[in-house]
Amino acid sequence: MKNKSAYFYSFIAPFMLVVAIIGFSFRSQSKKIFYLPLGIISFHLIIEKEINRRLKRQDILNKVKFFQKNK
Fold first, then answer.
1. S-S: 23 plus which of 1, 35, 65, 66, CB 3.0-4.6 Å?
2. Tens digit of pLDDT for each residue in 12-27?
3. 23, 35 contact by CB (below 8 A)
4. Per the structure, how many domains does the chain have?
5. Would you say 14 and 50 are in contact if contact means Cβ atoms under 8 Å apart?
6. Residue 27 gets which letter from DSSP?
7. Whole-model pTM?
């Protein structure tokens, strides 16, 4: 169950970004501002997830190096 929801949430942020770009491109000038928060939030979610992945991978690498030194 956890894996299925992880895949689902992985597609939400890029989908939100695509909707924001399309909405910002094709809407009239007065309604473009409504898509700006959606784009900002989706961009933030993508960047945050990438930063968390890098930090977790770096932490795992540091643990592996620590255990190799103390072997």
1. 35
2. 889 999 999 999 898 8
3. yes
4. 1
5. no
6. S
7. 0.72
